[in-house]
Amino acid sequence: MTQLEMARQGIVSDKMKQAAAAAGIDAELLRQRIAEGTAIVCHNNKHTNGRPLAVGKGLPTRVNANIGTSKDDTSIDKELEKARVAVAAGADAIMDLSTGGPIDEIRRAIIAETEACIGSVPLYQAACDTVVKKGKAIVDMTVDEIFDGIKKHLDDGVDFITVHCGVTRATVERMDNEGRIMEVVSRGGSFTVAWMTRNDAENPLYEHYDRLLELVKPYDATLSLGDGFRPGCLADATDRAQIHELIVLGELTQRAWAAGIQVMIEGPGHVPLNQIETNIQLQKRLCHGAPFYVLGPLVTDIAPGYDHITCAIGGSIAASAGADFLCYVTPSEHLCLPTAEDVHEGVMATRIAAHAADIVKGLPGAMEKDIAMSKARKALDWETQYCLAIDPELARRRRGESGVDEEHGACTMCGEFCAYKVMDERKQQS
Asked: What average pLDDT does range 347-356 have in this prediction?
């Protein structure tokens, strides 16, 4: 049985117990939410060294880090270092999006490297193999080749796969009729649309969705239903194509649940601040409360080099409104492949957003961390502040490099005129 099937039968599995303990939630409560589809335990049966990850309602807001090669940079060592950096920085999951070099070897090395939850987009490799190994165009992929690519990733132990099943001919028509500045910015979505146009056929992952469900079920992997029509700029946000795809994904969610397969929904993208909460509410309503996994959202289009900040702003609002899983964006977004340093900064920015949202959600223990930090600051207890900091190493280093005079015990901002010291002296005088 799958985790969803066990949950429906009232069985609290070992994976549920492990994931619940890590999340600080009662295992029976997690089981109930898995049964209703509002939470998942993400873990492929073949990921023998992996930790089951609980995502969804009432759980800590999770953070994903995207890594992966391109044709321009195929270094396995670089990607393994990024994986290590992401996990060390506190990422809950890693997605391997490699499109260059020995893709199979890279994915397997990343899976072997960490216990973290692993995701991928199998269509990327199917497309690359079609072009590089078979000398064909992406649009000449066969349906069997697409499904063979999915099976390969599942066999390797990938815990969740992004599949663009909601990219349909009807949705493409709506996009074309309405008009967009950036049309389709999802790589998987663009491959699918191009394939559909060239072959004058429906999306194979939509047309053969039952085949996909049958393929996934033995692995008990999670379907991450991708948003092929996610907006790539603010002007395209919340348009007909995006919402029509979301309606389709809601229908596919119910079909997956009926087959005993766990689902999460992927979401935008580039969204103005005032539309973020609406997007979350629409997803939760149309997709029946399934966990929501969002990229960013990015709240402006004009900050290349600082998109980890635009991502954190949007992510905090999205998660506060009910998003369950945040995919980071690094400073390199829209510019180049991220470095290991970019990965670190991206994870930290998104972890800040996630924590800010968890305070709003009333997650047990979230606000307590901030109260503890406040007390340590008031006491000028630097060691405790470092321990409580989201990035202890950075906090310690910045203060150490400042040339602070430790005699006054404060920092170089105020020194002996520190407000905490002034107020302490006031108490002593009274």
From this structure: 98
182 and 126 share one domain: yes
Q: Kindly report, residue by residue over 374-430, the tens digit of the pLDDT.
A: 999 999 999 999 999 999 999 999 988 888 777 677 888 888 888 888 888 777 886
CB atoms within 10 A of CB 338: 25
| Domain around 374 | 366-429
- Say which amino acid occupies 9: Q
Q: Which of 361, 377, 396 is the last residue of a domain?
A: 361
Same domain, 258 and 109: yes
Instruction: Please name the residue that has the structure tokens 């980071």.
Output: 328
Both 297 and 381 in one domain: the answer is no
Burial class of 194 by CB neighbour count within 10 A (0 to 12, 13 to 18, 19+)? middle
- Calculate the alpha carbon distances from 327 to 58, 252, 284, 298, 386 in Å: 18, 22, 18, 11, 26
pLDDT at residue 272 is higher than 80: yes
Select from 332, 361, 390 the last residue of a domain.
361
Q: What does the H/E/C string look like for 121-179? A: CHHHHHHHHHHHCCCCCHHHCCHHHHHHHHHHHHHHCCCEEEECCCCCHHHHHHHHHHC
Q: Is the pTM of this model over 0.90?
A: yes
Q: Are residues 353 and 370 in the same domain?
A: no
Check whether residue 341 and residue 403 sit in a common domain: no
Q: Within this chain, do residues 288 and 410 fall inside the same structural domain, yes or no?
A: no
Identity (one letter) of the amino acid at 236?
D
